[in-house]
Amino acid sequence: MSEKTLNTIPSYHFDALKQIEDGYWWFEGRLIWAKRFIRQWLESLSFTDPIFYVDLGCGTGGFGSELNHSFPMETTLLVDNSPEALQRIPENPKIQKLAVDLTAPFTLPFKPNLITCMDVIEHLKDDTETLKSIYNNLKPDGLFILSVPAHSFLYSAWDKALGHYRRYNKWGLIERLENTGFTIRAASYGWSFLFPAAPYRFFSSKTQEKLEYPKVSPRINQLLIKLAQMESKMAPWVPYPFGTSIFIAATKESK
Question: Can you give the pTM of this predicted structure?
Answer without folding.
Answer: 0.91
